[in-house]
Amino acid sequence: MCNARTYEAALRILRAIPPRALAYDFSKAHINPNDGWCRLATIQLHDSLWDTFGKVLDGERSTESLVRLATKISENSSRPLREDYVDPKDWLQSFSGANMRWEGLGILFSHWSFGITEFGQSPGPPQRWIPNFADYVLRYRDCAWDAIEITRSTASANTLLLYLLYAQECLESIISGDESLQHSRLHGETVSMLTYLGFHAIKGDMHDTGICTQIKRRLFGKVYHGDKVVSTYAGRPPMLSQRFVSTLLPLDVSDEVLMGVIPWRDDIVDEQGWNTLGKIYSSTLLRARAHMGFIRDSILGYNLQAEGNIGRNDLLDLRMKQENIIAEFPRFIAFKPEDIEDRRLSGPTLYAKLLIELEHLQNLFLIERLLCRVGNTSLSPELLQVSVKMVSTTLFFWTHKDKVIGLYDFEWIVMGYAAPAAGILCLDLLRPCTDNAVLASSTSRSEVIQMLCLLSGFLDWIKPLTPNRELSSCVRRVIQRVLDETLNFSSNSLEPAVDTMDWGAEMEINMNGFGYDLLGTFDWMLPEVVQSGK
């Protein structure tokens, strides 16, 4: 520890480590499959902390004992981390237990923060343990950031630090939102670290089972797709382009196989790298979303380009590519409505299936919006149909929330997927009945109204402290107003309902700050756009 600032940060981190029992409660609570690294490695890292340093951490944590521990961890962190391990045990041993590093402690603090966040989604033990869980999330986030700063002082750049930056980015998204400057800075730093390490252009055989190779590919896939999510949500150009990417996606294996707990067999993955056991792992979700991320990159190129004409045939080809990607996925990945009632499916598995389906629908939704732009129209039967599917699929998180207990960040799901699609449905409802397009042969006008009513309830359920609460409240008010006007509107009138509406109260928020207007997905909320709809 070379200076007073580092010294204070190190002691602050060690003093903030939760008691052993509470630390394990937080760790067990974090079950989200959308991790992007290797949750089992984090659990084993967690165990090694207490097995090796439990005597100090379970004690009084005197300044003297913590200084000795901090010195040991700093010495470990000053050594370069090898990035070429093949055996998972050797890899884990290099940064756990007696070799614990500040990057590893930062990962644990992020892990505990996610656990507290998941605790906070339902009543029970967390309220007994932590009266104000949000304060602890912020405190642990700051400790993880302190770990990043200490690591930076050693001029270290490695896989652990990259994952820690990515985890901090995800946490900041939950705390301050994807539109925030804090999140934008972290995202930029994460992508910069990825490209600095060269993880966007890793050479090698697809079936290379080495632990370091697979971890690097997992991180690449997660950061690459995350870049497309941020770009879509915030309306900014992506920082990673598929033109400069050559890294293969990781093999679809469980964490237990990856970490050597279950012996590797050559027949557990097929020629494309998917698992042959019919199970959905975190790697399955990562691979599926990354594959669709390559399509999203092309969509964003069309959506965000400053100038130039968009060819209809190019968009039709892009839509066909998206359909082909889904068709090539293993059948067990596909979401089916009966999955909702299947008691054999765990919460994380159902969550993964729903998320993959929503990613597919969102790509189609954005393509259909572009096709409407090319056709100089606001709506099309295809756009309406995919909008119905997006809203109805998202609503499963609300109507069957008991199936996904322990998972979190539904605010991002409802605002990222359902809200733009709901705008299309609202726009259609506001058109005069004689001009109203048929949504889909299997979806009636009353069913759409019921869907929007449920979505309004979902938006109202979002917790007041979520970062986009103000925006979600605005969306809810607009949907509610559209429903009121639709239900009160005479079916024989030929005038659009929008002409009779006073939009002032619903437009209190400046929507220009929300990036969906750049992608043409949230512009439905602006009165002048609604009035010009065809």
Structural classification = mainly alpha
Total number of strands: 0
Estimate percent helicity.
55-70%
Radius of gyration: 24 Å
Which strand-content bin applies to the residues?
A: under 5%
Put simply, the count of helices is 21
* Strand and helix order: HHHHHHHHHHHHHHHHHHHHH
Shape: globular
Q: Let me know the average pLDDT.
A: 86
Low-confidence segments, given as residue ranges, are 123-128, 434-438, 502-534
Major sheet details: none
Which SSEs are present, and which pair or pack?
Elements: H1 4-16, H2 20-29, H3 39-57, H4 63-77, H5 88-93, H6 102-119, H7 125-129, H8 133-153, H9 159-176, H10 181-197, H11 211-234, H12 255-258, H13 282-304, H14 312-328, H15 347-374, H16 381-399, H17 410-429, H18 445-461, H19 469-488, H20 516-519, H21 527-531
